[in-house]
Fold:
Amino acid sequence: MKLHAMLAALACAFPCSWSLAAAAVPAPAPEVVAYYPGWKSAQFPVNQDNIRARHVSLIQYAFADICWDGEHGNPAPDGGGVSACLDADGKHAKPANGSIVLPAPLADAANLAKLNALKQDNPRLRVLLSVGGWIWSNRFSDMAATPAARQAFIASALELVRRHGLDGVDIDWEHPAKGGIPCIEGKICHRVDDKENYVRLASELRSAFELAGKQDGGRHYLITIAAGAHATLVDDSDAPTSWVLRLADQLDWINLMTYDYRGVWDASNGELAPLYADSADPLHDKALYSDATVTRFLRAGVPSGKLVLGLPFYGYGWKQCAAGPRGDGLYQACQGAASGNDGSPTFTYSHLVEQGYLVDGKGARGFQRHWNAQSRVPSLYNRDSGVFITYEDAQSVAEKVRYIRAKGLRGGMFWELSGDYQHTLGTALSPILSTQP
Structure:
């Protein structure tokens, strides 16, 4: 972003033959990207009370899935099972392998229409369909591996975008060449060629969307992806050189999932989404913090204007954690996961407030809030129960807003809308939209 301003200044200072307009290409407007969980629409419906349209610039509708042999879903033990693919009328269908399908077509169509209606409050708002996610990434490798399946994916993406008046698609593949959720025995959920096939998919999708945009009155259909934050998901060690840069060339931007650096899958606790390294962290040399992820993508050649920093509107909790030398319970061995939302180890920000663990931003009900001045994130610790919770709050969001501006990033993304409490975190993130490009 700063580069554009410098080039414009040089153009004014030195006479030259090329036009000033060519040098002063406007930088893209900043983005605040919000994920909406379609499966929660009964308890968190799309309306103006739940979603402040002027606080965001783009809403990702999560999730659509990939149909294969007439089924979609994940048969892995923790994947929720498989379901029959359905057409737009909610009837069983068997589209070409690789086609995108909505899990609940009638309900999803209603939700998408309501999201589009929010554009009346914010004409700049865009709505995208997000495909995949943690549970539904098991078919990406199959789809991207063959031209026929890629074309089925692309054709169905375009059909869904046009049918529902959407502004593009978001691909949440977790994770190419590495895999994510366990794959069922006998199935192939990731391949060594995944990263190169991802580039092929994005390139073919871009070409199709550009042609469709011309046919549809000069529209620009967006293509974004969600990308894992860990080093092994980005490097070229298992892919042709500069695959990330070649992928980024086909995208409008990349939503960095700069969270889940630590979680209850770790025996010792840690911080969910630290902005910077903490010298006291036993794993401080593992680059498990947001700035390291951003730096990694920048070094790979991805422009700062194509990077969107991810923020979690949730946290994780551990139980029976020792206080440790600092008395805050951080970086300590624990005895498993604490009970959060619906008994899960996840603690949304709204849950923390509604359960009285946070009152006016301070710890309550036996919890004390601690602020890590190095990593710039908060945590809660209860000495009596030993429960430790890592989470995001308005102060840490404000720190990340400053970081986004300082680094010239495209904006901020958060997972997800229902996790906020009375728009506290969304309000703290929204100043990004007033950033001058």
About this structure: The first strand starts at residue 31 and ends at 37.
